[in-house]
Design goal:
Two copies of one chain form a homodimer.
Chain A: E1 4-5, H1 8-28, E2 34-40, H2 44-60, E3 63-69, H3 75-87, E4 93-96, H4 106-112, H5 124-131, H6 140-150, E5 160-164, H7 171-180, E6 184-188, H8 195-199, E7 204-207, E8 225-228, E9 232-234, E10 237-239, H9 244-250, E11 253-254, H10 261-291
Parallel strand pairs in A: 1-11, 2-3, 2-4, 5-6, 5-7, 7-8, 8-11
Antiparallel strand pairs in A: 9-10
Chain lengths: 292, 292
Amino acid sequence: MTATVIDGKAISARMMAEIRAEAGELEAAGWAPRLVSISVGDVAAAELYVRNQQKQAEAAGVAFEARNYPSDISLEQLTGVLAGLNADPRVNGIIIQRPLPAHIPVKALQKAVHPIKDVEGMHPSSIGNIVYNDLTLGPCTAVAAVEILKSLPLKMEGLDVCVIGHSEIVGKPIAFLMMGLGATVTVCHHMTRQVAVHSRAADAVFVAVGKPGLVTGNMLKPGAALIDIGINRVEGRTVGDADYASCAEVAGWITPVPGGVGPVTVAVLMRNAVLATRMQKDHYRAAFAAAV
Amino acid sequence: MTATVIDGKAISARMMAEIRAEAGELEAAGWAPRLVSISVGDVAAAELYVRNQQKQAEAAGVAFEARNYPSDISLEQLTGVLAGLNADPRVNGIIIQRPLPAHIPVKALQKAVHPIKDVEGMHPSSIGNIVYNDLTLGPCTAVAAVEILKSLPLKMEGLDVCVIGHSEIVGKPIAFLMMGLGATVTVCHHMTRQVAVHSRAADAVFVAVGKPGLVTGNMLKPGAALIDIGINRVEGRTVGDADYASCAEVAGWITPVPGGVGPVTVAVLMRNAVLATRMQKDHYRAAFAAAV
């Protein structure tokens, strides 16, 4: 068997067309979506990433302002900046770019973003809402990986799914999202005795660990879907967590790296921006109607 | 094999002794823990439950005030009551008794309780914090079930765990809590093709579905731990979700119903009350120190 290669760019393009239409509607209603990106200190590591977000935001009809603060800014000053953005009705979404300097704990910043402007879906309350199956703003990479699986001709209810990697922002949210769709989910990680026992029994495998070559073809059930979320640099090339050649021989569908989950993740970020703007519009209108 | 019967009352008693000591320390510091229980309308269904909580609170040295509101109270009035309790420093925890009248959506009330007073661990932000492995106030039944498993001589890291039932307040939180302890977790539910495939491979099985006799001995691996969270009334008797006789022959450990998870759940509620009080004390002191 040779796997069908999943075209992340095509899925992203379909999503972006819908997002652009919605952003246009919001703009016509006086609520043009607007994101603010916060980076701190030397931005070289994140620059390519931010520039790509900016380009995609333009394509989606979402305004994008990249702010950079000096590396000696204090946590108090930064949370003050966030409080200002939370209160500003012209700002609909806030992105915290990583890496941050050591004295700025990323979780403290994520919690300081109001959940209604949390377009990255990182606030504990956003994560909790996913558990409650109230999908509002979900963590972008996890949502993107699930969107890709949903694009395949597989019935999600009862699907046996194996998630390799149990990070808070990717592995665990994928698990809840898939549970919400009716799948039977097993989450494996570095303490799992034999990952292959679980992955070989699964109809779909998600891998998000950050180890090139971790998943090999003999760890898959023939015909399974493999969604590779890893991004690793090996000898100057970008590769995922799967040993692509052997997996493509066994899997039914496989995502390439790059060109798989990556492009869809940016589209989800833009969809979250539009969704957040709509939520804020409804929230402000309800508050206004109540006041009259 | 005949399973060792897990004594929930003994585990509860050990926990209650620790909680009482901590409650005493807090009282000596001027922060005697205090819970307010809110029930609405006819309380017959919840009365036994509330009375039991009250008794356990007394035993733990936690003050307990049971409030009942008329069944025609509006959601706005109730959220107003909760806002008052959130702001009142003499109240450290709020319990929303179920069932509620149809016009009062339970989730809306749960979200209206401030997360720092959410002793039932039901707020989306409390659930999200569990996912983030920041165990603050967890949902009582799920935490109790995990406490019981932790009392057994099993290594949690790498343990193969099967959770049957994926409710937001029991099954899913058990899954995250066990992931946080390093277990490999599979979550099964009514859409799972063959529960036995998963349960038979597991070293520990949690069941929380509400179907008497759902788990039978032939669904277990010999020597596995079975934590039965179900509470069902069958012919005037209270039984769990396991077919006790056949499971006790195969399992290594088994919780009885009643006398297993139930008593530990009330102890966890009291521990949450003490924990919440401590968090509030620290929060107020930090705010006071900052103001000076």
